[in-house]
Amino acid sequence: MINNFLDVVKFIPNKKIYLYLFLSALMTIITAFIIIPSLEYYDEHSRFFSQIIEILSYFGPFFIIFFYCSIFCAYLFLFYQYEKQRYTAFRIYKLSKEIQLIAKANFDKKVIKIDENELGQLSESINAIIIQAQKAIKEERRAKEIKNDLVTNVAHDLRSLLTSIIGYLNLINHDHYRDEIELRYYTEIVQSKAERIHHLINDLFE
Question: For residues 82 and 19, is the Cβ–Cβ distance under 8 A?
Fold first, then answer.
């Protein structure tokens, strides 16, 4: 999780980081100007709330610092979540492009790893498939006359399955899903097709 956080931060341009810090500070001040009059109103008209304010006043400046820092961090968190979504979409886009290269039988390249639950498992599975495909190519070269037809059929199936995977990844990349349930459904389909590719590679060795 820490590595993923650092990756997202590195993905954000320095200028945008400074902008987010400035906007968070500005929004914190605006929010405070909105909240403080409300607190004063409830302090005057609510005995219970007045007692809470009195208790918090014992903490003095520490409570005020905590109050402002909490608002500031909340706005920073919102900006981080926005950039995290952009970062995930960017990684999925790169993953789909690299799978397109693999679909063209470029098995010398591995896909990037995405540390996002099912998508992270998917990238690991595809990388495992690539390793198996590389071994399959070496076997095919040693026994080309025997396995030529089999390799051709498997390559066709791999290309079809990978093309299907790209289609579902494009749906995910362009947010063409109604909710998290449909998103999980798409990722399960892609995972199933990736496992099918893995089985095809294993059949090639038998």
Answer: no
Tell me if 107 sits within 8 A of 133, measured CB to CB.
Answer: yes
- Token pair belonging to 59: 């903490």
Radius of gyration of the chain (CA): 27
174: three-class secondary structure by DSSP: coil
List pLDDT tens digits, range 161-193. 888 888 888 888 887 777 888 888 888 888 888
Amino acid found at 137: I
Taking alpha carbons only, the member of 12, 11, 15 closest to residue 23 is 15
Neighbours of 72 (CB within 10 A): 18
- Say if residue 22's pLDDT is above 90: yes
Q: How many CB atoms lie within 10 A of CB 3?
A: 8
Q: Is the pTM of this model over 0.70?
A: no
What's the CA gap between 99 and 133, in Å, rounded? 13
- Please tell me the distance from the alpha carbon of residue 69 to that of residue 154, in angstroms, as a whole number: 58
Q: How many whole angstroms separate alpha carbon 6 and alpha carbon 19?
A: 18
Please state the domain extents for the chain: 2-85, 91-205
For residues 68 and 26, the answer to whether their CB atoms sit within 8 Å is: no
Helix 180-205 to helix 117-142 angle (10° resolution) is: 20
CA 50 to chain centre: 45
Distance between CA 77 and CA 10 in Å, rounded? Answer: 16
Q: Which of 138, 155, 8 is nearest to 85 (CA)?
A: 8
